[in-house]
Amino acid sequence: MIALVFKVAIGDGLYISFQGFEIRCRMERSYQMTKNNIVPNLQTKVTFGRFKQIYFTLKEVIKIAFRIQPKLLVAVLILNAVWGFSAVPGFYLEKLIIDKFVQGITGVDWKPVFYQVALLLAFSLGLSLFRNILGSYNRFLRRTLSRYVDSELDVLIGNKVSVLKLSVIESPQFKDRFSKVQRESGRRAWGLMMPISDIPNYVIGFASAVAILILVNPFISIGVLIFSIPRFLIDSKFIKKDYELDTQMSTKYRIWGWLRYYLVENRNFIELKLLKLTNYLSGRMRNISTEVIKKRIELNKKREISSFLGHLPLTIYDYAISLFLAFLVIIGKITVGSFQLYLRSLRSAEENLGGLVSSFLEIYENYIYVVDLVWFLNIKEEVQKEDEVKTIDDSSIEIEFKNVWFKYPRTDKWVLTGVNLKVKPSEKLALVGENGAGKSTLIKLLGGFYLPKKGKILINGKDLNEIDLSAWRDKLAVLFQQFETYPFSAKESIGYGDIQRIEDFEGIKEAAKKTGVDEYIEELPLKYNNPLAPEFDRGVNPSIGQWQRIGIARMLFRKAARILILDEPTSNVDPEAEEKIFKELVKVTRGKILIFVTQRFSTVRIADRIFVMHQGQIIEEGTHRSLMEKDGKYKRLFTLQAQAYLS
């Protein structure tokens, strides 16, 4: 008896064995180790061999589906198995009907034959109706499961990004591959699930058809296996080539996505119209799509020609077996009905084997895309072992930078060189300097988003590397220069500052009052429930200055924060509002550390100490008065800005 044997060996991979003949697939991925992260090597090697990683990927995807809707997944698998088994009884009913036709034609009394045929047709109709209902219900369940899987993947991807290291997220290699995850993995993950759910149907259908063919000759089934090999090999070859082309085009896809954003989803259409960029940007999109489509057409031409040639051996074999069965009918070895039964079984065996191996090839095709999703979901997260981290007393916090040097990954330029800085408890500190001096980088290091290449950052005398980063960040309220503008309600946009207190409406209103943005919000049609994006019903588009006030209010809403850090917090508000905001900041941060990064010197005088940065170094330190007396960099910058205001 010809059997399709599946065996899973974790060490050696997953093998598909057809009576001793093995088709194996392997995908090998290499990773480059860096000091801080594992960065994926985009040069992916795809070869035939062990199936270990495909097994791992299948396990991960099935785990996701089973976690989401276990009953739905099991129901789909069972219904597919029943569908596959129900095909063979239909073949046998057709055999009986045809044989009765022959008997009725040659016999004298047609009535008994007619009644028997009528009964057999009723059974055949009932079986067909059963299969139709089964198929419709199964399709309904599959569509439902696919929706659950797609939505859950979006949630998983969003959650995963939030726990990755900043150095990983900002890596160009990560961005290229992650854009492919966003573009492909949703449909590819379900594309991986669909053939998995079809496997029970194909296995049982193939086994049932083979069992019937054995009655004629066991070697017929072996021939189906052998003559199917060419098309399977050709299909798998082009699956690899398709993936390699997609990887080659990753950067172009990412550029295309940005171009589409600026043309279709850009929030600043005024600039687009004013600068007349539409034709230029759409032209770039067209050039990229033309290049990609051209390469796709070339590959698809080769694939279709090769696929046609790969199907020829099985087509010729099918014709030869059909002639053999016809010969058996003519010499009286089998009936006409048996000819139909065996021929249908042969075609069913071919279709089910083709469907089975095509399912594995489809799994393989989707696997080499979904492996990017699995890679993404298994990137090392920014976590610390509980027994290796220390806590700090937040009643009095002191910060010290000791000879800190830093440069970003994959660059040779030092952004910070030998920075020494000490912040006392409850001190108000200003960082000033020209663009590129290293001010914002200093803040990123303080937040633990990057680690110094040399030197240490101490919090109450403890190395920041050894402190519980999650607990430390709870003590920080940081508003970066490029902060997020959430389009939802004004209440949410401020409340996101402390998600545990988002229902504290009075606290949200109080934070808004401290920045003066409450007057603007109260004038909105829906007040604090008003959307902050014109894309929503009754939504508005706040000015940049209003957004800055909302952002500062969001940081002030962080009740547990002991350190308030603002990067260019008032660069887009008027001088009067700026003075009011800073006076309020000084008042509400009593007992807390306040650090603000700025290029505007009108408000730095409120700081207890001012640090002047230049080319990654702190070159001056002191109060406004002492720095003016030094007649150095600070005085020159202050004087230049003051003259600009007076002119």
Could you please describe the fold and organization of this structure?
59% of the residues lie in helices and 13% in strands. The strands form five sheets. Strands 13-14-15-10-16-17 form a six-stranded mixed beta sheet, with helices on both faces. The N and C termini lie far apart (98 Å). It is α/β, with parallel strands linked by helices. The radius of gyration is 35 Å and the shape is elongated. The N terminus is likely disordered.
Q: What is this entry, summarized?
A:
The protein has 647 residues and is an alpha/beta fold. Helix 3 packs antiparallel against helix 11, helix 4 packs antiparallel against helix 6 and helix 6 runs antiparallel to helix 7.
The CATH C-level name of one domain is Mainly Alpha
Query: Could you name the ranges where pLDDT drops below 50 across 5 or more consecutive residues?
Result: 1-50
What is the helical fraction, as a range of percent? 55-70%
Structural class: alpha/beta
Strand line-up across the major sheet: 13-14-15-10-16-17
Total number of strands: 17
Shape: elongated
Q: Major β-sheet, in short? A: 6 strands, mixed
User: What Rg do the Cα atoms give?
Assistant: 35 Å
Q: Beta fraction of the residues?
A: 5-15%
Mean pLDDT: 77
CATH homologous superfamily grouping of one domain: ABC transporter type 1, transmembrane domain
CATH topology of one domain: ABC transporter transmembrane region fold
CATH architecture annotation of one domain: Up-down Bundle
The total of helices stands at 20
**What is the distance, rounded to the nearest whole angstrom, between the alpha carbons of the first and last residues?**
98 Å
